[in-house]
Amino acid sequence: MRTLFLAVRVVTLCLASAGLCASARAQGLPVTDNVANCAWLKVTAHASGYEYTGQAGLGAKRSYSATCYMQLVFMPATGDNPNGRYGAPILCQVDAANWEASPMEQSFSARKLADGNAVSVDNYLTFKNAAGDVIQGYGVQRLSISVDKTGAFRSATFQTLGGELMDESMFFGSFMTVVGGYTAKGSTVPVTKVPPQALQLVAGGPCS
Questions:
Q1: Which residues make beta-bridge pairs with 139?
Q2: Residue ranges covered by each domain of the chain
Q3: CA Rg, the chain, in Å?
Q4: Burial 68-95 (b: 16+ CB within 10 A, else e)
């Protein structure tokens, strides 16, 4: 009777969280460390907070977003990272005519784990948009890599588990600093869906 109860409980959990069960099923399938090397992701960051006016106090509440692109690059294993790392600059349109790649210290960097996940802690990221908005601050991010039954790369998803809006984060309508929080989500896209301006920013890089 107890065995039946446990089985029903597992099924209930699976129905409630399909991702949890999919992850559990995939645990026995090896995920090659560099399988997502050079994959492209489209990532949208959402920010919410208040204008900061210094000692005068907090101003208007602001919410805004930025959509950018990332090309993952795998970095080989080291003593501290036996499964290697994934990194990527954040490639964003910054005005009507120009795109920029984030500097190294404001780019994605995550430790690859054996189960296909890559996790970053205290990653300092910057997302921008053509209007002039800036989303910047520390966060915890998860990169989840999926493979097919042969172990070949299928897709990857990107998710911010928690982000702090700070420093040069700015709302274009008032050009005021904004303090608050941000989240970012994204998934892989084919290279044909990547804007040519973003492709140009990494031309000549390790994936060219």
A1: 123, 163
A2: 31-201
A3: 19
A4: bbbbbbbbeeeeebebbbbbbbbbbbbe
Instruction: Report the C-alpha gap between 106 and 13 in whole angstroms.
Output: 38
Q: What does pTM read for this prediction?
A: 0.83
Q: What is the pLDDT of residue 73?
A: 97
Can you read off the two tokens belonging to residue 190?
A: 């084919």
Residues 6+ apart with CB under 8 A from 167: 136, 137
Residues 6+ apart with CB under 8 A from 158: 41, 43, 70, 141, 142, 143, 184, 185, 186, 187
Instruction: Pinpoint the alpha helices (H) of the chain.
Output: 2-16, 18-26, 196-201
Q: Give the mean model confidence (pLDDT) for residues 51-63.
A: 89
The residue length of the chain stands at: 208
Give the pairing of strands 117-128 and 108-112.
Answer: antiparallel
pLDDT at 28: 56
* Residue 8: band (very low, low, confident or very high) from pLDDT cuts 50, 70, 90: very low
What's 45's DSSP letter?
E
